[in-house]
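Ticket 4471: requesting a sanity check on a complex prediction with iron/sulfur cluster. Repro inputs:
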Amino acid sequence: MKEKIEELFRAADRNPKCNTAYPIFKKKFQRYEADCDIMEGVSELSYYIHIPFCSHLCNFCEYTRFQAGDKSQEDRYLELLTAQIREFTATHPVSKVYGLDIGGGTPSALDETNFEKILKLANSLLEGDPDKGITAPAPAEDFEKSIEISFTTINEEKISLIGAYGFKRVSAGIQSMSRSLLEKQGRAYNGIQEIAAYMKALYAAGVEKINLDLMYGMPDQGEDEINGTLDVIEMLKPQQVTIYEMRYNRMKSKPENVDRELQYDQYCTLYQRLLQMGYKSRFGKNTFTLCEDHGVSSYIWHRMDQGIPYKGFGISAQSMGSIGISYGSLKNTDLKDIPEMSAIGTSSNYRLPPEEMAAKYVSIAMYSGCFRLDALSRILGRDSREYFAEELAYLLSQEYITIHDNYVTVTEKGFRFYGAIAALFWSDTQKALLLQQEKG
Ligand code: SF4
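Returned structure tokens:
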């Protein structure tokens, strides 16, 4: 058995698609497609609202997004999104809410009127509707709503609205401070003065935490560029920094000069320097914080930590209930205009066996380099220590993980192989397909 585990581990390490993504062999999920409501009976959850419009369409983007600027298209999107949310709240009583994120795309790419509508709509999820007998859900103790913006599309008016509607956390992707690197990826560049001025205005409007996203492992990205971007972070000192390894899962191939070793080295540079600046994290985590928190919104945290269910609204949004997942239509679509507006609100539902749900949980948890055995047992419906006894023993023998109480934590040595570690917790079907693909 150890040989089999070792073979799978090596195969996953050689496969660039093995990271936090799951499933890798998507076609095999089709057999789970079912006419069911995966959110039925789920009363404690988080919410996510997807706004798929962006001012620039970056080459590396893995999300569903369309060119912003067509007002009638954006108006219609919001109308349909509102209907989708109203329909859900009228039919699904929710007693507790853990998180609420508005993401995309770029929510701030909407014009001021629609931007305000989306903030109002998000808040309505927390307010209930006494006329319709819908009671307001109780927020979890660490509930924190969050919105994504870009410094290219934000302005004073939208900043005031963020404050007025009570959003205390804002997340913005800057990815890199190299203009040439960003432009090669079709992305807009904002200078440090401009970013600093907007951050100041956000704080003045009532925002308490700003997260800035960075990327590493991009084509032509070197240590000098990473250090230059970190110099800017040191000047801006956002409360949180999230670092993302560039993924090539949707691209035909990975550039030859980008490999796991290089990405690992770049992670080490980011980790060490962010810690020197005073940020808290743990090696293997992709979030860094100056505050007493986990460095992410409560929606993301509860999804990663315990696999708390979440309901996503909008095109391509993903939801996870206790029996499966669903994807809104047009997932991973890369078009200028939304081809079928009526597709908003329609989704494909997958009733998943517990093994698939467990694999998804562990894969997502790899962003934090840690997962919980009690959460895994709950999802599996059986003792995860027994179910994955051989996998856990192998990873412990290689010193790739440690286990303390319920926490499985990836070690510094193991982080080099985080994608292969996750693959050991995949379902048997996905594992077999990976090995099959290796053998050609
Ligand atoms: S990376 Fe962000 S800004 Fe760029 S296309 Fe994707 S969602 Fe839009």
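Notes from triage: Residues 71-91 form the longest helix (21 residues). Leaving this open until the requester confirms.
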